[in-house]
Amino acid sequence: EDVPSQTFDNKDYFCGxxxxxxxxxxFTEEGETIRKIAIETEKPPQIEIHVWTIRKGILRxxxxxxxxxxxxxxxxxxxxxxxxxxxxxxxxxxxxxxxSQMCESRVCRTELEDLVKxxxxxxxxxxxx
Length: 129
Hints:
- By secondary structure, the protein is α+β, with helices and mostly antiparallel strands.
- It has 3 helices and 6 strands; from the N terminus they run βββββαβαα.
- Residues about 1-10 have low confidence and may be disordered.
- Keywords: Developmental protein, Glycoprotein, Repeat, Secreted, Signal.
């Protein structure tokens, strides 16, 4: 019998806040880079995938799709990159909306990289929560 490959349980907490797995997929086709950032949520149990299409450093297309966990498991290229809190994900989503407007006409490589860094939680020292 196959054992599920999930090595995380959703009882991971960061300073008392529940954390959720974040995945990334980056691949290039026909001169475009397709970068996908996905978060797995429990309520509702689904995967929210944010898709960026970048051509010559300019964000050409941006959209969000939601899929079931089963559908997500069948998608290629995704790897777990971190875990984040819902509040950090909200900051990421809001920043993404601003960047998608700002970067329609200019190169935004660093802005996109900085935005993804928002999702990485700083390991706090004990007592600093």
